[in-house]
Amino acid sequence: MMILGAILLLASSASAFPLGRSISNTLGGIITGKNKLTFNAAGNFKIVSFSDMHMGERPGDGSWAPWGPANDAATQVVHGTVLDNEKPNYVVFNGDMMTGENVFKANATNYLDMVYAPTVTRNIPFSSTHGNHDNANNINHQEEIEYEQAHYAHLSYTRSDVGPKPYGCGNYWVPVYAKSTDWVPAAILWFFDSRSFVSGTGNGPGPVPDAANYYWVDPNTVPNYIKLQRLLMTALWWQVPPALVFVHIPVQKAQILAPLPSPGDHDDEPDPSTQGFLNNTYTGLDLPFWDQIIALDGGKGNVLAITSGHDHGESWCARSKDSSGIPICFNGHSGYGGYVTEHSAVRNGRVFDMNLKDLSKKVPTVKTWNSYEDNTTDDAVELGPDYMAQYN
Ligand SMILES: *[C@@H]1O[C@H](CO)[C@@H](O)[C@H](O)[C@H]1NC(C)=O
Ligand SMILES: *[C@@H]1O[C@H](CO)[C@@H](O)[C@H](O)[C@H]1NC(C)=O
Ligand SMILES: *[C@@H]1O[C@H](CO)[C@@H](O)[C@H](O)[C@H]1NC(C)=O
Questions:
Q1: In the record, which residues are listed under signal peptide (predicted)?
Q2: 279 by DSSP, 3-state: which?
């Protein structure tokens, strides 16, 4: 009764959020209509994250050329190869599904079908974050989310719990359980929406500020959402399970970590493009979000990693005092659409291999590597207190 009282108190104090649904469905353990995601018998739950598919590209003059469809087909081969090699339990599409500036309103969502197809034919559950190129004249984040929910309900865990609609609402979390009878999840996957040029001022849809370089997670709604969910988890479960965080555009701390010698591609440096820049000046507007990631970490290493796409030529993981010890990762480039850098020509997905033993350590750890279309893997590391310890 006391716990329930605490929850109702928390719920009534923040009516701006879809709490009824969060409590009854998500915190209660089951997302309506979905199977509970569980670790396998060996105690593993493996995720492949694909970024920057950039389907539907056309030449800048708006004409039609065969290289767009050819690239899209090649991207599907990349995904199929990585999925067959890794056999993951879950797939995360980490933004820039399509090059939204190039697609037609009549069939923009056909490109989502093409992005998801290799995963769907293999019957793998998945969810999405949305990138700056997923918002454009003929498509936006809300439309992508609603299409995914309507057409892939049997496999998709994507929601839109909070955030400005239609351009920045893909913020939600998904629990993964050690076994299906458990009440407390063994890990939580968190997904955030870093919006785009057309996202407006942060208070909702609006004009594009001339000075915006790239966008950032909405500072008005999302930090409160994370805080509230964290408090509810603590009230219900007496703990906040280890977290793996996905967001398309990296937080600005990624720029600070970029010069460190970490395994993976470093092609977009010295300054990989990140959240929070207006007129090439860092504003700190991504810090309200980042501060809640730090709170989620609790200074205990509870955030296993926060991983992004957006910078196709970056595919490393690093951590230091500057990131409060939290590992920041890049996914590399899984699509044949979008710009290509010297070392990102061989496309890849990033793998996170969670293991129950690793998660139950005093400070939890997670193994991660890049898996390539040429059937190779590289950059394998175990993220945790021993990783890059000399910088922490
Ligand atoms: C979308 O429509 C355009 C114009 O009719 C066509 O050229 C293109 O092939 C279509 N794309 C898909 C994925 O259906
Ligand atoms: C951007 O910075 C330049 C150079 O400092 C300045 O001239 C321009 O007015 C600024 N633009 C905006 C929209 O702030
Ligand atoms: C990767 O392995 C698959 C399955 O064995 C094979 O069909 C494909 O040709 C290989 N790709 C490369 C680039 O070696």
A1: 1-16
A2: coil
Ligand 3 atom with the smallest distance to the CA of 374 is: 13
Q: Using alpha carbons, select from 154, 81, 78, 68 the residue that is nearest to residue 111.
A: 68
- Kind and range of the H or E element at 156? none
C-alpha distances in Å from residue 45, one per residue of 136, 161, 323:
35, 24, 26
Of 72-76, 138-142, 278-282, 379-383, the least confident: 278-282
Q: What is the pLDDT of residues 80-96, one digit of tens each?
A: 999 999 999 999 999 99
| Domains contained in the chain, CATH given | 21-391 (3.60.21.10)
pTM of the model: 0.92
Which among 111, 89, 85 has a CA at the least distance from the CA of 100? 111
174 vs 113: CA distance, rounded Å: 22
Which residues does ligand 1 sit against, CB inside 6 Å? Answer: 64, 104, 107, 110-111
Would the CB of 81 count as within 6 Å of ligand 3? yes
